[in-house]
Amino acid sequence: MRGSRRKGRAAAVAVAAVAALAGGGVAVAAFGVSADAGTLTIETATLDAPTNLAASNDCKKNKRNRVVLTWTDSTSPAVTKYEIDRSDDGGVTYTELKRVNPGVETTNDATIADDTTYSYAIFALRNKWTGPDSNVVTITTLALGTCT
User: Fold this and answer.
1) Contact, 141 vs 67, CB < 8 A?
2) How far apart are CA 52 and CA 43, in angstroms?
3) Which burial class, exposed, middle or buried, applies to 31 when counting CB atoms under 10 A from its CB (0-12, 13-18, 19+)?
4) If you count DSSP H runs as helices and E runs as strands, how many of each does the chain have, helices first?
5) 8-18 pLDDT, tens digit each
6) Contact 81, 99 (CB under 8 A)
7) Are 135 and 51 in contact (CB under 8 A)?
8) Which residue would you say has higher pLDDT here, 89 or 3?
9) I need a labelling partner for 23 at 20 to 30 A (CA). Which of 12, 37, 70, 141 fits?
10) Cα separation, 86 vs 32, whole angstroms
């Protein structure tokens, strides 16, 4: 899990709210906390991780390599976007590759180098809240000249 995405004071308040709700038998994976005129509002929603993330090499029409990512959409109606992250250092650090809408279950990564190993993960978003990561997939791109 890449904890750098989850930061800020709201997280501490949210953890306390989750602990209180969990004690009452409510499972919470994502939530929002806001205070307005002395009223505390807690929004709860379950953000399930997308599943079955897979990666494959593919040659585009212009003979450049690309990675095709596929996954199974989360069943959570609370998802507003999915973020796809990529690592080129063995999964130590990840950077955001792109965001896609719910219902999308495939995307391409053409911003890759030949004969390079990448790791990918995807997770659900609801506004600024993040769900758990999918499985991580690792793939080595095709060598230069392979796409003919």
Assistant:
1) yes
2) 28
3) buried
4) 1, 10
5) 333 334 444 44
6) yes
7) yes
8) 89
9) 37
10) 27
Residue 23 carries which side chain, given as an amino acid letter? G
End-to-end CA distance of the chain: 38
Cβ(65)–Cβ(142) under 8 Å? yes
The C-alpha atoms of residue 5 and residue 31 are separated, in whole angstroms, by 15
- What span, in angstroms and rounded, lies between the C-alpha atoms of 131 and 78? 10
d(CA 71, CA 104): 9
Beta bridge partners of 124: 82
User: Residue 105: what residue type?
Assistant: E
Domains of the chain: 3-45 (no CATH), 51-140 (2.60.40.10)
Of 42, 98, 52, 107, nearest to 75 (Cα)? 52
Q: Which residue type is seen at 68? A: V
